Amino acid sequence: MTKQKIVKQESAAALVSDFNSYCPKHKTKNLRRILLSVSAACAVLVGAASVHFQPTLRAAEAPLRIKALSYHTFEEQDVRDTASQTIDDVLERMQENAAAFISQHYAKVSEEDALEIVHQAFISGKEHDIDPLLILAIIATESSFNPNAGSSAGAKGLMQVHAKVHAKRFKEYGGVKAVHEIEAGIEVGTQILKEYLNKTGSLKGALKYYVGAANHKTDGGYSRKVLSMRSHLQMAANGEIQAARIQARSPSKFPEDHQDHKDFATYSANMKLEKFPSLAGDSQNQG
């Protein structure tokens, strides 16, 4: 006989004994039967409750096991749902990243101003098929992103254009005073760079002309500075802003993969998603 059954019987016998002690013998047998039924039912309920409660106690006493969580255990979302961006969406992110790098690397340039400059560089670059990061690299080298910059030689604005020499180009912007405006300064500077690229057929040759060293043997390291800054900007545009800042603080190094041909300075050749692997993976629709 199990311990549980013994407990039930002992409980029922105790109740009957108490009843016999306090109840007169002339009470009907029906009353005894009713009491016995009630006592048996109580014993069953007590036993059932104890059986149900014991596993709970054992579970509480057992070591707590927590399943290891990782990012992938959260509710999974289809990556394609969040990555159904057009090429314009990706280009916008590139511009924001580049602007963040510029405002952090050049303390006097606000992120708002940097974003306006970057945005115009992309507009002019696309219009004239010039790599916008190259345009920004020239701006960085020429004026450190200061629209009011000027030189003793008469060069002015973001891209240090000789406004009087190129006065005709500024007519549609209201005259040479517009050289200090972001749109006019970048647009005219990009037009000049495009002409030099077509004239020399070489990126280094165009930069040599741009800095005014066409008749000299070397450009004095100008192209090295510009192309080094362009590599920093590409890294930043790809989302690696902090790495770009660290790289930009180290001595300039001429990019090893640089190819000296005008086609490598074009918008179409450089604004390809495969050149920005971190962002390329976020876009399926290239628009």
Strand order of the largest sheet: 1-2
Q: What is the average of the pLDDT values? A: 75
Strand content: under 5%
The Rg value, from CA coordinates, equals 41 Å
Characterization of this structure:
With 287 residues, the protein is an all-alpha fold. Helices cover 58% and strands 1% of the residues. The protein is built from twelve helices and two strands. The chain has helices at residues 3-22, 29-61, 79-82, 87-105, 111-128, 132-143, 182-200, 203-210, 222-237, 241-249, 267-270, 277-280; strands at residues 155-156, 161-162. A two-stranded antiparallel ribbon has the order 1-2. The longest helix is centred in the N-terminal third of the chain and has 33 residues, at 29-61. It is globular and about 40 Å long.
Summarize the structure.
By secondary structure, the protein is an all-alpha fold. It is built from twelve helices and two strands. A two-stranded antiparallel sheet has the order 1-2.
